[in-house]
Design goal:
By secondary structure, the chain is mostly beta strands. 7% of the residues lie in helices and 45% in strands. The protein has 1 helix and 9 strands; from the N terminus they run ββββββαβββ. Strands 1, 2, 3, 4, 5, 6, 7, 8 and 9 form a 9-stranded antiparallel beta sheet that branches. A hairpin with a 4-residue loop joins β8 and β9. It is globular and about 35 Å long.
């Protein structure tokens, strides 16, 4: 079990675990402009962190995999991904670009997950979509 602890969050508990959960992307906020974008279909944009340091997920009509590390922040290294065209309204490209730029992240203290790009420029919010199969 991986447990994340952040000084600002106080004490840690087993509820701080991010592995084995299907995280569904719900929104992204740009800290510079204050603009917040709500994801219309969170179930189409998922990420699952496995205990062995691997990850997999969905970016709309595409699937991806990769690895993650919680050393010196939080980094995601995207690996193989299908690259089908998901349509003009798809957020698949933006989602994958944001994931590839993640520098920090962990439980948001309210049952969700927050991932941020360097300096907190963009903050992605995820809701718990249930246990991964």
């Amino acid at each position: 079990v991986l447990v994340l602890t952040f000084a600002a969050c106080g004490t840690s508990s087993t509820s701080d675990t991010i592995t084995g959960i299907v995280w569904q992307w719900t929104s992204v906020k740009d800290r510079v402009t204050g603009e917040e974008t709500t994801v219309p279909n969170p179930e189409n944009y998922t990420i699952v962190f496995n205990e062995d340091g691997t990850l997999e997920g969905k970016a709309d009509c595409n699937n991806f995999s990769g690895t993650y590390s919680q050393e010196n922040g939080f980094t995601i290294t995207l690996g193989p991904a299908t690259m089908a065209y998901c349509g003009e309204t798809s957020m698949d490209t933006q989602y994958l670009q944001l994931l590839g730029s993640v520098a920090a992240g962990g439980p948001d203290g309210q049952g969700g997950l927050a991932l941020e790009t360097a300096g907190g420029a963009q903050r992605m919010e995820f809701k718990n979509g249930g246990k991964a199969k």
